[in-house]
Amino acid sequence: MTALVEHHLDLPGARSCTVRMERADRSDPQLAEALVEIDLQSFVETTYSRYTAQALLQHGEVLLLRADGRIIGAAVVVRSWDPPHEALLLSMAILPGWRGRGLGQRFVGWVLEALASEGISAVTLLVGSDNTRAMRVYRDVGFEVVREVEVEAGTGTRQLLLRVRLDSWGGTVPGGVEHV
């Protein structure tokens, strides 16, 4: 698998390692299970089943974050139908043992760079307003709050819709980027 980005990092609280972002190999049958496992360790409610993970691998854009070859994170992106040059960052997660080391900002920034290079002009996502860590990561790479939305009708469950325009995005990724 060819890395889209590869970077040697000295992370706080960890040994140095090589971190790389790559597109998921759609033919790898183990990846659906890896996506579900990352999801289960990262979110209060499951985002998707094995079936949905496999469908997203086949029809979405799944970008993996690896540290020394091991999958430590994943971003799942789907294109919008209207407008067609926009995308939704459906989920982005890093395994618990790797959080708090600046990888979230780097990973999201690398994902945005990859999407911009594919002609995507804007990316949106939903995040809980109480998820301060995620909000900080997204704001630091340029996302702005568009509005609050009710995600489950009648339940009062609300999230913030965030958006970043890539056609005017500065492309700044904290920690720098080394393309391979």
pLDDT < 50 stretches? 175-180
Strand content: 35-45%
Number of strands: 8
Order of helices and strands: EEHHEEEHEHEE
Structural class of the helices, strands and pairings?
A: alpha+beta
Mean pLDDT: 85
Query: Radius of gyration in whole Å, from Cα?
Result: 16 Å
Largest sheet: 8 strands, mixed
Distance between the termini: 12 Å
Strand order of the largest sheet: 1-2-3-4-5-6-8-7
- Shape summary: globular
Helix content: 25-40%
Describe the structure.
This protein is α+β, with helices and mostly antiparallel strands and 180 residues long. The chain is built from four helices and eight strands.
In short:
With 180 residues, the chain is an alpha+beta fold. The chain has helices spanning 31-42, 50-59, 103-117, 132-140; strands at residues 3-10, 16-23, 61-67, 70-79, 86-94, 122-127, 144-152, 157-165.
